[in-house]
Design brief:
This protein is an alpha+beta fold and 312 residues long. It is built from 11 helices and 9 strands. The longest helix has 26 residues.
Length: 312
């Protein structure tokens, strides 16, 4: 249950309090503003960004150390500053997730499916567990211990070998095909429900809608909010949205259950992001530091997010 909306400032304070111990916000900060601004940021700037989302300096610093130990981040001393970057493997994962977070549902589906069968009897169990995580991260659903499916979408690569690790590919067999018309549609629906927990995704979208719909209406009425507030709302919103989108398999619209609310949540996220983008970007350019002092300007591909952002 979400807290009733009062004011923009009150909403920010309530979300900051809820985020206090959420070190996972750090990856969302990297994915949303560090990567399009050159990929490197001073640790002090991460601390400042974290504070605006309610995360303590201690939590940010301990999260940086933990992620560095896990191979997600690299740190480098430059004078009196420590510069943080995503490690190469993490960079690939974040880039692979960007379309799932910032692109809307794909309408151009011709009924083709990818089917992956794993030679899991030949794979070390610990490695196989990681392979499964990577497959689910890339949008595949699991229908049996070693069988995974995913629709072949127009905005994806030609096949899985363009986005999955070579180690996974060497342990899998890939097929592509269509569902035969002789099978009842209800059987396909059951298969989809087994592969993906759409009930949970839909419930999380509903919480997102309730949390951000009134905030969007308030910002429409008073769009000129301070840069620090704009950055805080944008960062917290995209963190909440990103966590749902990485659970959402991004199926074609025709495969989602009746009453699917993902499109409504996407619309709210797009409108909020677009409204907050000018002030939040100005704040980033003025307050955030990179290896050479001021953080670089955003990459042009940034404006492709959510199907197109307003350029001022």
């Amino acid at each position: 249950m979400t807290t009733p909306f009062t004011t923009i400032s009150g909403w920010i304070e309530e979300r900051q309090a809820a985020n206090k111990r959420s070190g996972s916000v750090l990856i969302s900060l990297f994915a949303d503003f560090v990567v399009p601004h050159g990929g490197a940021v001073a640790l002090g700037s991460l601390v400042e960004a974290g504070a605006l989302t309610g995360i303590s300096e201690q939590t940010i610093r301990s999260s940086v150390n933990r992620l560095a130990a896990d191979g997600w981040l690299t740190t480098e001393a430059m004078g009196r500053r420590s510069i943080c970057r995503l490690a190469e493997t993490a960079q690939k994962r974040v880039q692979a997730a960007i379309p799932r977070v910032y692109q809307c549902a794909n309408e151009l589906w011709d009924g083709q499916w990818h089917l992956l069968v794993a030679n899991n009897w030949k794979i070390d169990p610990e490695n196989y567990t990681q392979y499964v995580r990577d497959l689910l991260w890339s949008g595949f659903g699991r229908i049996a211990d070693n069988v995974f499916i995913r629709p072949v979408l127009a905005n994806a690569t030609v096949c899985c070998d363009g986005e999955l690790k070579e180690a996974i590919l060497n342990s899998m067999v890939c097929f592509e095909g269509t569902a035969k018309g002789c099978i009842q549609a209800s059987s396909i629906d059951e298969l989809i429900n087994k592969a993906w927990d759409l009930t949970t995704v839909q419930a999380r979208y509903q919480v997102f809608i309730e949390r951000y719909e009134e905030l969007l209406a308030a910002i429409w009425k008073s769009p000129r909010i301070p840069g620090a507030q704009a950055f805080a709302i944008r960062s917290m919103m995209i963190h909440d949205f990103r966590r749902i989108r990485l659970l959402d398999p991004g199926l074609p619209t025709s495969l989602f259950p009746a009453g699917w609310n993902g499109e409504r949540a996407f619309y709210i996220a797009h409108e909020l992001y677009d409204l907050l983008m000018p002030s939040s970007e100005q704040f980033i350019m003025e307050a955030m530091q990179g290896p050479d002092g001021r953080i670089p300007f955003v990459e042009s591909s940034f404006y492709d997010r959510f199907g197109g952002l307003t350029r001022n």
